[in-house]
């Protein structure tokens, strides 16, 4: 089993957020149950992600999702300074996103981390000039707030993180537009489907309904399913089951939790339904999968 970092080592359940600026050295492969947003302030190094090695330099920004594994390498005598921002997906409530009507402004959070590895790290964001300064200023402000903890710091940090993700999404969208030239309507449909899939990946353990997704993404249920079928050749719930089963496979191999507990962890209250679904997707029962993994 790989080293899995848990949230209680860094943050409290009532405020699941932590941020620091640090000199990054070599770190062995590990995973974690929280989102990790990394900004490279200065220097260079290497990021090892799911078996591939990517060069890092100042201005790079990337996100590691819960359950993914990665590591860092810095050459002897070299230095790399990063800002490490950790938070649980629940830190930005759906209700707040819906109230602010900004779901379609969070593409870096919802879309980029769920691309293929090649697209994700060879087409990652690299900021410079005023863009880099703006992002670093926001990150440093959050560091001050969490270190000093003045009145209202929790609200300010949450709003600043949302501002940061919207900014990164703006830069990401501009970068995408420079690389490809699909029609505005085609691009919007693709991005909406990817937002939905990214949301499912990040919130698979929640009780998700088509109505709640319809409200969050400001689209009809019929339109949600049509967009998902066009982009992923499956309905919303077919995609959700796929995401949950993939996560269950990791949990079965990486933890000693009972099958019924794993089912609950990925969003299924009915173990018999989970077992039938697992067999349909994987070809064997959860217990058989664990014993042969």
TrEMBL record:
Gene3D superfamilies: Homeodomain-like (1.10.10.60), Jelly Rolls (2.60.120.10)
Organism annotation: Paenibacillus sacheonensis
Record has Ion transport as a keyword: no
SUPFAM superfamilies membership: Homeodomain-like, Regulatory protein AraC
GO molecular-function term, one example from the UniProt record: DNA-binding transcription factor activity
Alphabetically ordered keywords of this record: DNA-binding, Transcription, Transcription regulation
Record-linked InterPro entries: AraC-bd (IPR003313), Homeodomain-like_sf (IPR009057), HTH-like (IPR037923), HTH_AraC (IPR018060), HTH_AraC-typ_CS (IPR018062), RmlC-like_jellyroll (IPR014710), Tscrpt_reg_AraC-type_HTH (IPR020449)
Protein name stated in the entry: Helix-turn-helix domain-containing protein
Domain HTH araC/xylS-type positions: 194-292
Listed Pfam families: AraC_binding (PF02311), HTH_18 (PF12833)
Keyword Transcription regulation: yes
SMART domains, sorted: HTH_ARAC (SM00342)
């Amino acid at each position: 089993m790989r080293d899995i970092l848990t949230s209680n080592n860094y943050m409290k359940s009532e405020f699941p957020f932590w941020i620091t600026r640090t000199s990054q050295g070599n770190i062995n492969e590990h995973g974690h149950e929280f989102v990790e947003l990394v900004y490279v302030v200065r220097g260079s190094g290497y990021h090892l992600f799911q078996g591939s090695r990517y060069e890092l330099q100042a201005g790079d920004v990337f996100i590691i999702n819960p359950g993914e594994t990665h590591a860092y390498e810095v050459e002897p005598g070299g230095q790399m300074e990063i800002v490490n921002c950790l938070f649980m997906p629940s830190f930005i409530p759906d209700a707040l996103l819906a109230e602010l009507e900004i779901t379609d402004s969070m593409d870096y959070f919802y879309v980029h981390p769920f691309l293929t590895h090649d697209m994700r790290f060879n087409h990652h964001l690299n900021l410079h000039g005023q863009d880099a300064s703006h992002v670093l200023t926001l990150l440093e402000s959050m560091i001050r707030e969490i270190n000093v903890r003045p009145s209202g710091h929790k609200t300010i940090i949450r709003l600043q993180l949302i501002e940061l993700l919207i900014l990164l999404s703006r830069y990401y969208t501009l970068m995408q537009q420079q690389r490809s030239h699909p029609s505005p309507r085609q691009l919007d449909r693709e991005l909406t489907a990817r937002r939905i899939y990214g949301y499912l990946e990040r919130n698979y353990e929640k009780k998700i309904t088509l109505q709640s997704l319809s409200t969050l993404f400001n689209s009809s249920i019929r339109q949600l399913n049509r967009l998902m079928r066009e982009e992923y050749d499956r309905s919303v719930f077919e995609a959700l089951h796929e995401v949950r089963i993939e996560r269950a496979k990791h949990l079965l191999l990486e933890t000693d939790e009972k099958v019924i507990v794993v089912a609950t962890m990925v969003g299924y209250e009915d173990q018999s339904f989970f077992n039938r679904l697992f067999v349909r997707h994987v070809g064997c029962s959860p217990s058989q999968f664990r014993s042969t993994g």
